[in-house]
């Protein structure tokens, strides 16, 4: 019998904590587990701009037919504009291709399969610590995984010297997984000068960055959070970017993400697109439409774009205030150095 000898898999560490939170009867409990924004009522609100976009979509859409393998062209163009900004030399040169994926996780999985297809011997270098699903996804497709030190817990800062020392061991065509902003789980981000040093090292080693860009707009601002991503894309011949719109549009259960591949030139980008298509076809064939339509509608309307940006700014400001209140509430209960980093980067 095929399934009789299967062992019970261990619970997911993050989802297990979420369940423990739900079962805790303490009325003063605070949920610090999953990376989901909640308002003062404990609810994850829907952006007003999202509601307005949905109303427009429901009024005007005329079909529920399949999307193409890489999604709707207007969505992928909107994604590129949000990541790279106006006047991007990467876009002008035709070096970028983008495929719509079911969430940032889906984008990362497509990236992993795409990398293995290009070089099954590639090693993926992942920060320590990182989002727990990163190594699982890379190992699931058969890629080797190594770690590099990232966070100095004693100093509550990026351990940049140790990080760079370890990354000097990467080999040509290895993959270095970086967090575009709001590093998960530490929140400690690279300064722009450090991004420049990382770019120089990856260029020298011939390695390819895979950037998990899940929180654009949640750190310092939409353009500010994209500085490192844009720098690498302009400087390096090849870059992979897995972006998510769960956080900055509040579209968690719509599963809206995208994989963007930067290649050396336009011809190489089109070859990469063809391989990304075959990868997607073998996994889920075509992406879900509704969430992507919301993102496209908002980014394509000056009025909705401005309203969404204002709501995102308000969310970011509230997160920063909650951090300050959290640290203030711990005053006298723990040593200040243990929590000072929580507000040091706001």
Distance between the termini: 56 Å
The beta-strand count equals 9
| Uncertain runs | none
Kindly provide the radius of gyration, computed on alpha-carbon positions and rounded to a whole number of angstroms.
20 Å
Q: Estimate what percentage of residues fall within beta strands.
A: 5-15%
Largest sheet: 7 strands, mixed
Strand order of the largest sheet: 1-9-8-7-6-2-3
- Could you report the average pLDDT, rounded to the nearest whole number? 91
Q: What is the number of helical segments per DSSP (H or I, 4+ residues)?
A: 14
> What percent of the residues sit in helical stretches (DSSP H or I)?
40-55%
Strand and helix order: HHHHEHEHEEEHEHEHHEEHHHH
Shape, please? globular
Structural class: alpha/beta
Please tell me about this protein's structure.
This protein has 346 residues and is an alpha/beta fold. It contains 14 helices and nine strands. Helix 2 packs across helix 12 (290-300), helix 3 (73-84) crosses helix 12 and helix 5 packs across helix 11 (266-283). The longest helix is centred in the last third of the chain and has 28 residues, at 302-329. The radius of gyration is 20 Å and the shape is globular. The termini are far apart. The mean pLDDT is 91.
Question: How would you describe this structure in keywords?
Answer:
seven-stranded mixed beta sheet, two-stranded antiparallel sheet, 9 strands, 346 residues, alpha/beta, 14% strand, 14 helices
Task: Reconstruct the topology from this structure.
Blueprint: H1 13-23, H2 48-60, H3 73-84, H4 89-92, E1 96-102, H5 103-118, E2 123-128, H6 133-140, E3 144-149, E4 151-152, E5 157-158, H7 160-167, E6 175-179, H8 192-205, E7 208-213, H9 222-225, H10 227-235, E8 239-244, E9 256-262, H11 266-283, H12 290-300, H13 302-329, H14 341-344
Parallel strand pairs: 2-3, 2-6, 6-7, 7-8
Antiparallel strand pairs: 1-9, 4-5, 8-9
Helix pairs in contact: 2-12, 2-13, 3-12, 5-11, 8-10, 12-13
């Amino acid at each position: 019998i095929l399934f009789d000898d299967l062992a019970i898999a261990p619970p997911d560490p993050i989802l297990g904590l979420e369940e423990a939170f739900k079962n805790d009867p303490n009325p003063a409990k605070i949920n610090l587990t999953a990376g989901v924004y909640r308002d003062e009522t404990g609810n994850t609100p829907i952006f007003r701009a999202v509601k307005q976009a949905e109303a427009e979509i429901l009024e005007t859409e005329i079909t529920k037919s399949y999307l193409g393998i890489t999604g709707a062209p207007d969505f992928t163009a909107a994604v590129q504009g949000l990541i790279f900004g106006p006047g991007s030399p990467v876009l002008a040169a035709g070096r970028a291709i983008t495929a719509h994926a079911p969430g940032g996780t889906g984008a990362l999985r497509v990236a992993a399969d795409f990398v293995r297809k290009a070089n099954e011997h590639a090693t993926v270098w992942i920060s320590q610590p990182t989002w727990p699903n990163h190594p699982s996804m890379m190992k699931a497709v058969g890629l080797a995984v190594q770690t590099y030190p990232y966070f100095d817990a004693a100093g509550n800062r990026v351990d940049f010297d140790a990080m760079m020392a370890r990354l000097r061991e990467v080999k040509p065509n290895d993959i270095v997984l970086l967090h575009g902003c709001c590093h998960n789980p530490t929140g400690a981000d690279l300064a722009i000068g450090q991004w420049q040093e990382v770019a120089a090292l990856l260029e020298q080693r011939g390695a390819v960055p895979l950037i998990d860009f899940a929180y654009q707009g949640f750190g310092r601002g939409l353009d500010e959070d994209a500085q490192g991503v844009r720098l690498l894309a302009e400087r390096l011949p090849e870059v992979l970017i897995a972006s998510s719109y769960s956080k900055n549009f509040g579209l968690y259960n719509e599963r809206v993400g995208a994989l963007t591949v930067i290649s050396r030139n336009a011809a190489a980008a089109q070859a990469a697109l063809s391989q990304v298509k075959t990868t997607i076809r073998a996994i889920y064939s075509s992406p879900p439409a509704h969430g992507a339509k919301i993102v496209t509608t908002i980014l394509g309307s000056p009025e909705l774009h401005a309203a969404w940006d204002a709501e995102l700014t308000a969310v970011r400001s509230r997160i920063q205030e909650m951090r300050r209140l959290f640290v203030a509430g711990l005053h006298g209960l723990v040593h200040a150095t243990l929590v000072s980093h929580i507000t040091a980067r706001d």
